[in-house]
Amino acid sequence: MKSVKLTFFGVSVLISLFLICNDLVAQSLSPYPTVNLYVSPKGDDRNPGSLKRPFKTIEKAKQMVGDLLKTKAEQITVTLRGGRYALGQTLTFNQQDAGENCRVVYQAYPGEKPVLSGGQKVFGWTLHNVGQNIYKASVGNRNFRQIYVNGKEAVRARQPNRENETDFGPYFRLLRANVQKQEFTIALKDWDAAKPVAQKEAMELVVLPHWLHQNVRYKKDRIEGDSVRFVPEDAERMAVFNKYDNYYRNAPFYYENAYEFIDEPGEWYLNKEEGVLYYKAEKDIDIRQLDVEIPVLDVLIEVTGSQEKPVQNLEFRGLTLECTNWTSPSEVGLSATQFVLPYGQLANRAFANRAYPQAAFKLMNAKYVTIRNNVIRNAGANAIVFFANVDDSPIDGNTITNIAANGIVIDAQGKKNARPEEHSDSVVIVNNSISKCGQVYTNGGGVLAYNVHGMTIEHNNIFDMPYSGIQVGDQPAGYADVGCYANLIRFNHIHHCLQLHDDGGGIYTLGGNQRGTRIEENYLHDIKRSQWAGEWYVEAIYLDNYSQFIRVANNVVYNAEVGGQYNHAQNNEFTTNGPDIPQKAAIIANAGIKVRPKAESSPSVQQSSRRK
Question: Is the pLDDT of residue 9 over 80?
């Protein structure tokens, strides 16, 4: 019986391949053909996957790719027709989904927009409060921290109400913190906004001191005279109070996540106990006419090989990825240092650790994986994460916007002097538009690279950030070689950063002996101190905490402090930076995105001679 089953399987594969080859157009007749598969939301997985008879799901196409990799195809292209693909689970790619000698491309059909969504539509709305025009809908046991209405993020109900889309203010101000007792002190007049809340255990205090972002869950309060002592849940107390008392003085904060805070159109609240979502619509709006989506999946595309056998030769091109989730702050709170690194997870930056911010694209142990010309938006944490050992994999020409945390994170494992096989080598981040990161976790930024070397960040537009644009390095606590060196940051257009926080820069380095690193011919402007920021530096280029041996040259800077080296940074070269330097016009003209010729082809299968 076993031989019969194998024969039947083989015949099935041959029949499928026969149908594909006969039904697809422009099929190569060479002995090493390019094979084309097609997917459409209007397709059927019983189809052969041709242009006229496409598959319905990407999973089905991926399954067929696995079969085709056993043939002698040089390239397999999966073309997605326009429309929404609601993913029921993360699309996972391993060694069986790509080949050493065959490139596999997932791409958009020319002129169409396939949208891969990690969300779920919300239906069944009923009017809950006629006078306030508040609707409700059952969402079961779903947990989420964002919702999207007609493709735009709505406001999680808060006090004071959000009025500014740049700094997300206004805010209340903390009086102080008592680090030893692990409590915040709030003025009694500012506590009035939280007094009516019936379910205070679901309420969060969002505190934004200097470069930190904290979501602090309520445990109890104590009124003393004209102030209130706010005590967080035990799980986050140690992580929240890791500075000194005066660090928190006068820090901006607001209350979030209570039904009683819904008082402005566009605000929402999730009652997790009842599984009910509440939303306040504009007057005279029928909510059934609105497209409301809640995020379900943390990760949309995950590529994971092994150090010995990385996933190779994949490309994702022209796709739109949107609506991802990340609920850890609701479960354990969040006290995050710059670029949304949770203090409580510093010793546990493992790939599988879901308390660490997740990403729409998440990769580890891969090479020759290209992420090109995609749109990544409405992400509940990060857009792209190369966790470790992702080599020769360009991030090229993407639009990244409306991201809760960070745009791009490289070597998120964050190890100092990681073993060669753990490093991500020859990473190029080029021609991307990266904007509006840190939209929920406000100390997020555009590009974060930990202890990396040989990385190039060039010709990107990075703008509209509540915190820094680019950070390279990860706190070494001294003058040390930590594996972060020879990186090149050039030809970028960076502006309107640090619109909320302080102690950062348009380009920022966090320590270590970064020999051979060059920051050259960038165009930086409009980086000014927010009214809510503290007194630490807000600068165009900021070399911090023991940064050494970096060359900063020929950068055009205006409407911003040029910057310098601080907090034990030394032995760095600052040459010819400012608003009026030689070759200013040429530097400005060359900075930012440079569009490639349309005729430029995709990279072929590459073989690297570099050994790890």
Answer: no
180 vs 241: CA distance, rounded Å = 8
List Cβ neighbours of 36 (8 Å cut-off, separation of 6 or more).
Answer: 20, 24, 25, 26, 27, 51, 76, 77, 79
Q: 520 and 551 in contact (C-beta within 8 Å)? A: yes
For 592, the token pair is 């930012």
- Token pair in block for residue 257: 């996540």
Which residues lie across from 204 on neighbouring strands? 217, 256
* Residue 216 token pair: 């602090």
Calpha distance 488→427 (Å, rounded): 11
Please report the pLDDT score of residue 344 as a whole number.
81
Q: Which of 567, 587, 568 is nearest to 576 (CA)?
A: 587
Euclidean distance between CA atoms 457 and 561, whole angstroms: 22
pLDDT greater than 70 at residue 389? yes
Helix pair 2-23, 58-68: axis angle to 10 deg: 110
Cα-Cα-Cα-Cα torsion 272, 273, 276, 278, nearest 10 degrees, comes to -70
The first and second tokens of residue 203, run together, are 């309420």
Contact between residue 538 and residue 515 where contact means Cβ atoms under 8 Å apart = no
C-alpha angle 159/160/161, rounded to 5°? 95
> Residue written as tokens 């009923």?
126
- 3-state SS, residue 491: coil
What per-residue confidence (pLDDT) applies to 476? 83
Q: Say how far apart CA 257 and CA 215 lie, in whole Å.
A: 11
pTM of the predicted protein model: 0.93
Q: Quick one: tokens of 238?
A: 């140690």
- Strand order from edge to edge, sheet including 119-121: 119-121, 292-295, 148-149, 152-153
pLDDT > 90 in the chain, percent: 84
CA 131/CA 128 separation, integer angstroms: 9
Task: Determine the length of the chain.
Answer: 612
CA-CA-CA-CA torsion for 503, 504, 510, 515, nearest 10 degrees? -130
Q: Which residue type does 111 have?
A: G
Output the DSSP codes for 343-367.
GGGTT---TT-TTS--EEEEEEEEE
Sheet holding 83-86, edge to edge: 83-86, 114-117, 320-322, 375-379, 399-403, 433-435, 461-463, 493-495, 523-527, 556-560
* SS3 state at 188: helix
Instruction: Give percent above pLDDT 70 in the chain.
Output: 92
Residue 596, pLDDT score: 62
Rounded to whole angstroms, the Cα distance separating 239 from 217 reads 12
Q: No. of H helices and E strands in the chain?
A: 6, 48
Burial class (CB in 10 A: 0-12, 13-18, 19+), 275: middle
Q: Which two tokens stand for residue 193?
A: 């906004």
